[in-house]
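Researcher: Good morning. I'm working through a list of sequences from a screen, and I'd like to move beyond sequence-only analysis. For each chain I'm collecting a predicted structure so we can compare shapes side by side. This is the next one on the list. No need for commentary yet; just the structure.
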Amino acid sequence: MDKVTLDIIWGKLQATSDEMGVVLAKASMSPVIYEVLDFACGLCDYKGEMVSVQNGITIFTGTFTDDVKTIMNKFKKNIHEGDIFLLNDPHRSGTHLNDVSVIKPIFIDDKLLSFAIADAHWIDIGGSVTGSMSPQATDIYQEGLQLPGVKLYKKGEIQNDIQDIISSNVRFSTLALGDLNAEVAAVNIAESRIKEIVEKYGYQTVIEAFDYLKDTSENIAKKAISKMPNGTYEVEDVIDGDGFTEDQIPIKLKLIVKDNEIEFDFNGTSPQSESPLKCGKGALFSMVKTIFKSVVDPHAYTNEGWFRPLKLTIPDGTVFSATYPSSTSWYFEVSSQGADLVWKAFAPLTKEMISAGSYVSLTASFIYGTDHRNGEPFMIVEPHSGGWGASSNSDGTSGLIAILDGDTYNYSIELFEAKFPLRCKQYKLNTKAGVGHGEFRGGFGLLREYEILNDDTFTYCNIGRSVAKPWGINKAHEGTNNYMIIHSKGKDKRVTRIPSTKLSKGDLLKIVTGSGGGFGNPKQRKKENVLSDIENGFISKEDAEKIYNFKQ
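Model: Good morning. Structure tokens for this chain:
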């Protein structure tokens, strides 16, 4: 088949994944999905390998292949047209129980062609605490309902008992079933679009397109790796405690480049503990894939071919390779630090592509209770944006979401105040804490403050990068830390990893995200850039004189 036709089909597959995302966002019922966009959609071929993905949560896109292959390995020949599967297994393929994958096989004349998959965060999946993400959970049974690959639909017929099990085990059943239906709508529209493509181009041509796009991407990836110098690049970092201990937890990586392949060896990383601050291998490898893709070709369509030259080496039972039945609800904090470790390892290899360390942690806030205005329970899951590191030719970006969350947004204040019993008191750049100074400075974090409007409200959090700071490059300064402040009864309490905590009417909740690290010697920063920061209120004239030798 000619290349032009194959490229057209490639584009249509990408358009299908994008349309899935639009359908899911518009049909969902939870603000964390339709407002924050905490989901991703995509397509896998008949082998279970990802061939297209919508720009969504980056951590999900790297797990699609494992998700689909988990279903294929479990059901084998018991996969039929009209089946739809549910999966949220964090140890074999996924992230945590809240992230529920809906997977639909697509058949053409009784022949399996592909799979459509939608993965979205449900605000509650049961478990010991509202939101299902207790910082104190010691095993997966405390985190909620497990869906280890079950059929929601069998040959087109919905299995009402599965719906009943879900609605009886989650706290917000109307939202959960609404979001489930939105995911089903997304995979159904994918089936329609794939059948249209096959009708126009033919079954075998689409099969050829699958192989073509993966092989093309693999070749580009290998060429990019071959330009990197062979060698072993070692980096290490720490996780700032796990909620059970304040002791810092060492993590290590050897990035080994050999010709046109890369091995990511995490041997030496700390063993898992009882804390839910850990992730499975699938989540770790997903972030490895994300960083690799951002380095070699960030704008090209993503598919599994890009990652064929990559090898993951890690023993079972570490904070990056949790084993069943351990808790993993806070996987995103740990896998984000894994991503930052890979980012740091690539720094000497791709100097023009890599920025300094970022705030890393999603600094997610969880607020729940009963709304005094209507007597209804509410649950807020909110990731927060922060400062990214500077690069060799520009300052870091301020107020950008952490790399794990990809294209997610923050909540609009108007929606927040309309839906929840909170009032936003301030939302601004966190300039007071400083920044990673350098020839190019890091981006600033944010400060968002809420006033609690009723007494029946609780919060919990598990915030990373609260002690160790985002790293700078080439004599630049480090960035700043993340944390939360609870203001109650006239006193401020700075917290980072806390279990469910009671709040009272009038209390203030302040979420503070850190700044990114700098790049280069601060003494070499251009005068006009320093002056611009002074005029914008980012730095005082006194600090500019001391740090940058600024003289007007």
